[in-house]
What does this fold into?
Amino acid sequence: MELIGAATTPVAWNWVTFGQTVLATLIGATVALLGAWWLARIERRSRYEARLTDALVKVVNAASEIGGRVFEENRLTPLKVAGFDHSETPLTMALDASTMVARGENKKTMYAAIALTVLYTPATASGRILVLEELIRIIGYWRTGELNDRQTRDAFAAAISKVKADPLAMPHDDEAERSASERGPR
It folds into this structure.
């Protein structure tokens, strides 16, 4: 009978225990939420890096294919004028696609790659091969972590200077340069 009486007797509410339980539940939920957010962020970064790397593999493959073709077509006449032709469209498209995937500092780096590849198109086959080799080399160093974004952009700028300074890559027309310098900046 005592057991039945004890079981049916009202017990005072223990606010301290209730508060501790609620607090522990909130702390546990907060830790779980932060952990899930952190893992999602790591996963998102990993997917981004994989997409960017896949896009850059397409750039390297296109550059390698074009470089091989230009070499084969011009191996006996490396100073032959080799301007842009439509067979280089896959490279341009791969660079554009990589730029669309890239974010932040990576996007600036892709703009530097486009500057090297598209804006400074050498006039000769040997110059074009030089540009494509530099593009592949610099992207390789960048994606393996040997160069950070800033160093990669500097490497692209150095490659542009190298191509512009190579007389076999960019034959200079002194008359055109003189008239351009007289006009001044646009």
Remarks:
- Residues 15-74 form the longest helix (60 residues).
- Residues 171-186 have pLDDT under 50 and may be disordered.
- Helices lie at 2-8, 15-74, 89-101, 104-119, 125-143, 149-165, 174-183.
